């Protein structure tokens, strides 16, 4: 067994950090012997290292999950009892929410208050929600004739590989684990290399909740090795991934090895439309929330803002001033701060690269020319706002994934919709208007998996509302009842009630 070690965060919260891989309800050393280091984005100090798995570790993990899936202990567990396990896990997450929130804030750089009040609140709600589903997942009878009984069964898919992103680690884990376990599957889940600490701690709570051994396997590792091995593995029946579109495409190709069921939640370039009749104060407020929350590291961030011509200049000025007044830069554990560092040096460099590209391509910089010196500690990027962009500019076409927004005017409703859907992505969108007919018509015309009207919450969606995208923003839906269909398969049974032939 791999022995835990004690870590103390800058907030002085201490916890026992599990080490190794979580296999068969125990933490064990990796076969590869390789490690990953994780860094505090605020000051670039190394927090610790974790085991990084190779293909042989994935083979062991998948075999353990397969054995658990076939075991009598898991197969014979009544739906009500599976639900009780999930509910108990929710209670344990509630008990240790301050630890899980501390880990994600430390590891990711996100505000502790956000990790606790938003991410962990959703983790608990998601597990409780799916805890109510297992004894309600069932088939139906189908009337055919007096001589035949036809009915269906909703059965689990099998071993599910799940790959989660770094921007909301423990929350994304709950989104995927909840429906998968509710439906009776077993899971091998891999955290992102940038944020490997919170999911092993969640695994320790899964053991404490007394899930059968092997039902949940937790590994850490690089996408090119561990993720690729999981996606192409012939004994993995389903793959679920949240991350970039390019990586999603690679996973989709690898999953063809045995025609895995796939769920992909990939990139976004979400538009936000502001019509002349909108409540300008609310539109400005929610526009800042839509792009600056979590330092823009949200797949549904409204990173393209289109404003009707008559109020465009006024909006841009108010948006700039409101962003300046409401952006306090600092460390993730300071409650007075609301703008923390990006997750990594690579992410910081990527965002600042787009800043220079936008200037070279002719967009007008409104805010963000006073970025920290490259010698300054921490992966900080101050809010960036451009005006007078156009469809051909690189930052208008590509996902930046940072506190970076481009703005442009539109003439009328038709022009607004055309500009909003002029993208390969279709994850989210938002619009502000006081005319209800305009709101419904425009929302229906936008090609996106979700549309916010006169609001723009940063945190995706409610746990019972489906989440997913159109076009190159993904395949399938997470959350709510909709996610259950992604983790079950239908079996039709035909029973002859007449004379046996």
From TrEMBL:
Active-site residues, record numbering mapped to chain: 265
Chain ranges of the Aldehyde dehydrogenase domain: 28-492
Listed GO biological process terms: carboxylic acid biosynthetic process; polyamine catabolic process
PROSITE patterns membership: ALDEHYDE_DEHYDR_GLU (PS00687)
EC number(s) on file: 1.2.1.3
Keyword terms: Oxidoreductase
Gene Ontology MF annotations: aldehyde dehydrogenase (NAD+) activity
Gene3D superfamilies, alphabetized: Aldehyde Dehydrogenase, Chain A, domain 1, Aldehyde Dehydrogenase, Chain A, domain 2
Pfam families documented for this protein: Aldedh
PANTHER family assigned to the protein according to its UniProt record, in alphabetical order: 2-AMINOMUCONIC SEMIALDEHYDE DEHYDROGENASE, ALDEHYDE DEHYDROGENASE ALDH (AFU_ORTHOLOGUE AFUA_8G02310)-RELATED
Family: Belongs to the aldehyde dehydrogenase family.
Protein name: aldehyde dehydrogenase (NAD(+))
Organism: Penicillium hordei
